[in-house]
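FIELD: query
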Amino acid sequence: MARITDTMAGDHRRCDLLFAEAEASVSDSNWDAGTAQFNEFHSAMEHHFSMEEGVLFPTFEEASGMTMGPTQMMRVEHTQMRQLFSDMAQAVEKQDRDAYLGLSETLMMIMQQHNMKEEQMLYPMTDRTFGGGADEVIEKMNAV
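FIELD: result
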């Protein structure tokens, strides 16, 4: 039986690795690699958010009856991160190393706190709520 916690925490690690690769390339002013890696990271994060916002959160809210709880806070934080992605994309386009690195530092703090809340609170709540039905939810998320 698969667990939401394991699946989504694994995706966090994948996104974190892509983030670190982009940051390292931009730090070295390797704009060709940095641009490609940032775009890959951004795409991975949007996919992760789509799995949560399109499948996981609504399924959890329906099953638990909890619509203004942790899922709502996660959506707010997704919005904050999306603004940073936009600002970072502009920094990449302008090849503004200092702006990118400052934004990436802010994003790193937000992502670490966000991931911790999901991995230690929200995902375990979904696993308890879905029980044996987690496999079906994971399958739907993988289809996004």
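FIELD: remark
Helices lie at 4-27, 31-64, 70-94, 97-130, 134-142.
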